[in-house]
Amino acid sequence: xxxxxxxxxxxxxxxxxxxxxxxxxxxxxxxxxxxxxxxxxxxxxxxxxxxxxxxxxxxxxxxxxxxxxxxxxxxxxxxxxxxxxxxxxxxxxxxxxxxxxxxxxxxxxxxxxxxxxxxxxxxxxxxxxxxxxxxxxxxxxxxxxxxxxxxxxxxxxxxxxxxxxxxxxxxxxxxxxxxxxxxxxxxxxxxxxxxxxxxxxxxxxxxxxxxxxxxxxxxxxxxxxxxxxxxxxxxxxxxxxxxxxxxxxxxxxxxxxxxxxxxxxxxxxxxxxxxxxxxxxxxxxxxxxxxxxxxxxxxxxxxxxxxxxxxxxxxxxxxxxxxxxxxxxxxxxxxxxxxxxxxxxxxxxxxxxxxxxxxxxxxxxxxxxxxxxxxxxxxxxxxxxxxxxxxxx
Length: 393
Known about the structure:
By secondary structure, the chain is α+β, with helices and mostly antiparallel strands. The chain contains eleven helices and 21 strands. The longest helix has 18 residues, at 167-184.
C-alpha cells in the first residue's frame, strides 16, 4: 500500500529558518495529492524530506506504513521527477528509462520488458533510439516520468515538473500526467505554485504558507469553502474580491455594510445567524468570487443582496466580460492576501485602491456605466479580520 503519512514534521535549518512547522498529513494509496503554495512556502522542502534528500528536525515520515525517517533515499522506494528532467544526454531514451532499474540486478529480459511497457504507456516507444537533444520538451518530460515509473515505486514525487514547458504543452501534459497516474495506480505527491495545475490534477489539494499547511480539501471544496483569508485570496483567478466591512443589527436582522452599501446577511451569506450575531457592530472581511457577482437582473438577485457600482474598465475574454469597479472599503490587513509574494511595509490600503471584478456575460455594461450587481445567494463569505479564519457555525 503506497500510503504516505507525515507526523508532526518540522524542518529547521542551521540559520534558524523554519521551513516546515509541525506538519501532519495522510495521503491515501493511489491518491494524486497536490501541494500548492507560493515560492518559499516550504512545499519543495517537504517533498525532498519525503524523498530523503532533506533530514527533518522533528517528527516522522511513514511510507506504506514503514517509518522511513532515518532511511537513505535509495531505501525509501520512492521515485522523483524534477523540473529540469535530469536526463543523461549521452544515453538513448531506452537507456535513460532503463537506468531507473539498473541497480536492481534484474535479468536483461525483464528490464527490456519493463522499459518497452512503460515507453508504450507514455507513447515514446517510437523514440527509444533517440538522444534527449532530439526530443521536444514534452517528450523529455515523458522520458523522465518513464525512468521513475519503470521502478514501480510505492510513491511518485513530482517537483514542479511542468514549469519549463510552454502553456499549450503544459495543458497537454497535465492531462497525460493525470491519465498515467490513474493507469499505473501509484500514489503521487505533486508540488506546484500553479493553482490551475493543482485544481485540475489533484484528488485533494493542500495549500501551504510559511511552512504551515493551511487547508486540505478536494479542489471544488477548497475553492468554494476556503478556511481562511490566505486560501480565499490565493486560490482563484481572478482572485476573490475582499473588503473590510461592519456587521450591523437592526430590528432583529443582521446586515453587512461596506462601501456605503448595506447587504442583508440572510440574503447573501450562508453564515449561521448566531455565529454572525457575535460580530454585531464589529469589523469583518467580506469575500465574494467574481463569478458570484452578476447583473442583478441576470441572476434574479433578491433585495438586500445587490451592489450599485460604476464600471471603470471592461475586459472581454471569450463569452465572459470582466467588469472592474472601485470599492470604497479598504482591506485593513498588513498585506493583501491575494498577493502572498509581496509583503509590504505599510498597510495595504495606503498602497492602492481596492478594485473588485465581476464576471458577467459579454452583453454587460462598459466603462462609465452605473449598474446594479446581484450577489448569488449564500456566496458571500465573511472572515474574522484578527485571525483570518472564515466565520462559521
